What we know:
single chain; alpha/beta; Aldehyde Dehydrogenase, Chain A, domain 1; Aldehyde Dehydrogenase, Chain A, domain 2; 14 helices; 22 strands; binds 2-aminohexanedioic acid
Amino acid sequence: MSHDFLAELGIAEQTSGVYAGGWIAEPGGAVVDSIDPSTGDTIAAVRTGSADDYERVAATATEAFAGWRAETAPARGELIRLLGERLRAKKRALGALVSLEMGKIRAEGEGEVQEMIDICDFAVGLSRQLYGLSLHSERPGHRMYEQWHPLGPIGVITAFNFPVAVWAWNAAIAGVCGDPVIWKPSLKTPLCAIAVQRIADEVFAEAGHAGVSGLIMGEDATVGETMVADPRLPLISATGSCRMGRHVGQRVAARMGRSLLELGGNNALVVLDDADLDLAVRAIVFGAVGTTGQRCTTTRRLLVQKGVAAELTERLQKAYAQVRIGNPLDAETLMGPLIDGDAVDGMMAALETAAKQGGEVLCGGKRVDRPGFFVEPTIVRASADMPIVAEETFAPILYVIEVADVEVAIAANNGVAQGLSSAIFTNDLRCSERWLSAAGSDCGIANVNIGTSGAEIGGAFGGEKDTGGGREAGSDSWKAYMRRQTCTVNWSGQLPLAQGIKFE
Length: 504
Ligand code: UN1
């Protein structure tokens, strides 16, 4: 552990992965290694929690809820403001840790921390709103309105690919809404979770609300299952694969809990004949190669109209040839490694399947011969009916599919099970409006002349169909973290009944 930023984050000596109002010194779960995906070397070993440790975290959060919801929302917002301030101060160090442990490049690591800061700012403003409607009653002398109350402790399950930002989307919004958070991070990025938890601890513990932000690292089969089945958690917010989400959603529904699911994507980017190809090339390379193809918003399918297919494909191949692959901490690197050996194997298996189904590798397609989990960014010429194209492979594979026109493009875009993000490049108003119409893209995110990834936090983030239907971050996503109450107050001195009913 020779990096200066580890000391700055205070994690050089830390081994516990469980926090219940304070760090639990010797949690009872297995020891997991944090692996540097650029080398395959172990950075540190972290002790995870057992089901008993989970119980301590859940009990702490449940107890903390009473004190937390008693604070006014603006007072809670003040702590989220302080959290944003601490994150600003640690942006460089935390961004570097994300690069080290997850493998995304420096700019993207720091961008992820910026996303945390942005959602804190958003949540601070929100803490002075959390507004309900007032409605007109049919009964004279009655006032009807709705108000929003804190919901309770929220279980937050996050994935390795955004190891810090997705916690912040949940924690900042849940925080102002009055809900404690119990975080179960990916075991592939334990140091990121510890570093974030330490920053949260500085803010919440100093304010006497240590229990509001809990952390439980642990195995899915023990800790995960216990958490998902826990009736004390009215909401489980989970990010990850469609398979995981389907399981979590069913388990939570079985106990009448709510779930907020942000699952896999299979995002298409459409380029029509009239598109600005300079813009399109840049958006496609960022969308398909950025984060080594490991964003849920990664561009996986390029649906290109016939007239520009040859030129666009050629320009993309040239751009791909210039992608500098290497250590994500080096300033010149544009693409870091995949997260682990399984991810590399998964990519190679998908490419084999694609070849069997008639796909043709236009560039890339191989492992990079160096330590760590490096691969080449890859373009495959494909057709929409190849079954592999309907799958989300978490790797930098871009399937290029020719389409006849905007209608065929929309049908192909919508012809997969996932429905997260989508984009069209065109300057034809009729095509872009058709894309955005009810008969257009069926995804949670539909863009025009920008790529599929890199959404701002101000919008609601999430998607339809197998993506799970949840919305996190901006807009009115906060409503998922509160309970709605419809209130009618009678000041008339009479007791008129609704629907004109006489009951005398
Ligand atoms: C994810 O990959 O889980 O829109 C989140 C984006 C980022 C968030 C991605 N703001 O690409």
